[in-house]
């Protein structure tokens, strides 16, 4: 049997961010591989009108948990959802719940965070730094705690080109920053944010870097490890290929491409996009939890969960595979036919943004207005281009992450553990993976039925014909204007006509 799976049996595990992308996959894997675990405590807040119970119910009844439900129909009995809002003092956890957590927890997986790039700094610090600090304090009062695994991001030090498995100094001491966020006025914080974050691209990355410093400085005698994933994407293998339920990261760009909103990719041919499948991240987190608890390394280890060093995914190759998959299985109700221009030239980029993005959106909204419908494409286009400009940073540069600890961890695992908790990305076939990723976005996120593919293809054919007609009309108008104004154009026209005896 797998030693890692056996380790988690009979354990009480606390997960923050269990309702998020990574948290759900982590929980699913734990239930599938260690069905005899004692309990999983999850810190949840009510959201979108759903109570805690309803949120847990919808997760357990989702497709992601279909395998778990088969082997373990009463899985709900092993989840203890505890009300907690990590942005509040004491997280708002009741006294009884806190006592139970403190006395029973064996392992903590801290996945919760705000992952929006440009949240106000005060909120990003509150959630990604202060909440981490409070959780560490809670952890220090847990007599049975064996390991604390903190989820950070491989980009927390993206101001460097080569990133080692260490916590780097961050501009601003966390304590001072936390203090300043408490008493400074929101308007002043907004003004000084660019100065504070320095050469990090946004408040998210900066707050995650500060969070790491807090973990290092305030972890005390706890057994801690930090896992730093790069760009987390859909599942590779488990529980099935292509599962994804959010638009973060590349998902949004792929959807925008499939819907014909985005027709531009500003990358060089050899740019590497450091994707890492979410099930691989979950496996590494669980393996790190086991190693930290059982082997108790003397220093806090940092594990990079990245792909670029071992099996790089080239952006252009990926984009072509996205297009090939969209050709076979198009998304429904596209605004335009999917197509992409690759350019790294700034002027060309602006030109294509105007000509093949903004102008068609304005024309389409005009048409919607004329036909008595609500215009919406310009708004959608602006949102897409805005998101694209924020994500572009992460595909326009190259980073190298050391993976010594990750490789060491793999070498410490038995062949059975390496199979069950596989995070060896060398085995990953990117073309197959990207195809599943696109299909997963269509199925699980857009909720589009495969039966709708013929209609979607028909729709794209109509768009192609409209495009031909539109281009022909524009060409004829331009040509007519040219002939009216230029003798040379008239001569060329007569010459062509004489060739064809017109
Ligand atoms: C042949 C060629 C083929 C071409 C094919 C091309 C295919 C594409 C291939 C692409 C390959 C390259 C992919 C590379 C992608 C790089 C990804 C980089 C990811 C970096 C990872 C860094 C490490 C991390 O830890 S990140 C953690 C993950 N976090 C995120 O990804 C967050 C990203 N999103 C945001 O921060 C924000 O949403 C932002 C900045 C994009 C926009 O913020 P803003 O405040 O302006 O708007 P919002 O209030 O957030 O939203 C307004 C509106 O939009 C809805 N919405 C929110 N988020 C998204 C989203 N991600 N996508 C779509 N829509 C979104 C939101 O609900 C709001 O809707 P309303 O209706 O207005 O309420
Ligand atoms: N996605 C990615 O590409 C990457 C993510 N990471 C890191 O991985 C971790 C998980 O990210 P991911 O799963 O993608 O993020 P999600 O946004 O999907 O999940 C975030 C989780 O945090 C919870 N949370 C946020 N605010 C609060 C709050 N105030 N109180 C209680 N819970 C809260 C959310 O709960 P709720 O459902 O209630 O909102 C949700 O469960 C993060 O630490 C992130 O920094 C690192 C690298 C890349």
Automatic annotation (TrEMBL):
One of its GO terms (cellular component) is peroxisomal membrane. Residues 357-448 form the Fatty acyl-CoA reductase C-terminal domain. Gene3D superfamilies: NAD(P)-binding Rossmann-like Domain (3.40.50.720). GO terms for molecular function: alcohol-forming long-chain fatty acyl-CoA reductase activity; alcohol-forming very long-chain fatty acyl-CoA reductase activity. It catalyses: hexadecanoyl-CoA + 2 NADPH + 2 H(+) = hexadecan-1-ol + 2 NADP(+) + CoA; hexacosanoyl-CoA + 2 NADPH + 2 H(+) = hexacosan-1-ol + 2 NADP(+) + CoA; 24-methylpentacosanoyl-CoA + 2 NADPH + 2 H(+) = 24-methylpentacosan-1-ol + 2 NADP(+) + CoA; triacontanoyl-CoA + 2 NADPH + 2 H(+) = triacontan-1-ol + 2 NADP(+) + CoA. Residues 15-285 form the Thioester reductase (TE) domain. Keywords: Lipid biosynthesis, Lipid metabolism, Membrane, NADP, Oxidoreductase, Peroxisome, Transmembrane, Transmembrane helix. Pfam families: NAD_binding_4 (PF07993), Sterile (PF03015). The chain crosses the membrane at residues 466-483. It is a single-pass membrane protein. Its EC number is 1.2.1.84. SUPFAM superfamilies: NAD(P)-binding Rossmann-fold domains. It is found in: Peroxisome membrane. GO terms for biological process: long-chain fatty-acyl-CoA metabolic process; wax biosynthetic process. Catalyzes the reduction of fatty acyl-CoA to fatty alcohols. Belongs to the fatty acyl-CoA reductase family. This is Fatty acyl-CoA reductase.
